[in-house]
């Protein structure tokens, strides 16, 4: 027996007083044309075109306006934003999946305020969109300004934590460059933490050589921990900032002269990591996938 059931009405976004009917997949939405025109240039142009062409499209369940290449759940997420009071902030208890859905569809259908809302939510500390997804959005020109930050995020994401789905999104060439870059950067970090720098201990400025050496030992041990930990490792640039600010354990044991000498000695080597990041970030942007 053939199933002849027609489209179902969306339980929340099929309003009795709606003025325009859309069919997305097999779900009907009856919503208010005025709200779409207010927020979307895409739908504003659509309605102007359909007024010119006529045909009664969108005025009944039998003749809806069909929205292709869009999931009903994503369209409902966009309507959630449209029908939610605009006083909501990006800190609203929205899920990552819903915010991502709103971002992509608001870009496609030109809802600038919805786009800004979703982008702010995904940029916030609560959702913290993973670097792989940020990279994909930037590469697709949905949020192009996320490109370089997302690449730096990829280079700092432990390679072993990337999933097969991540690999499919990145593609083999990007994955290869990311792996090569992380290997080079890890080599720099291991080289730096394997050998402690020498301190001058000037006689007229350093009055406790043993205390200075003890402080350096504590500092360097802590440095190895924070830059080699498997989850959320600190970059050398961040570590250098902590050292320069005196924010690492053991530095308070050192004389001012030895502390300044330490900073001057390690700065060029620590800044080499940033140069490596820049080199490989540029290499990724030049891949043919763009």
TrEMBL record:
> InterPro entries attached here?
BTB/POZ_dom, SKP1/BTB/POZ_sf
PROSITE patterns registered for this protein in UniProt: BTB (PS50097)
Q: Which Pfam families match?
A: BTB
Where the record annotates domain BTB, the positions are 18-91
Q: Which residues form the signal peptide?
A: none
| Protein name in the entry | BTB domain-containing protein
Gene3D superfamilies in the cross-refs: Potassium Channel Kv1.1, Chain A (3.30.710.10)
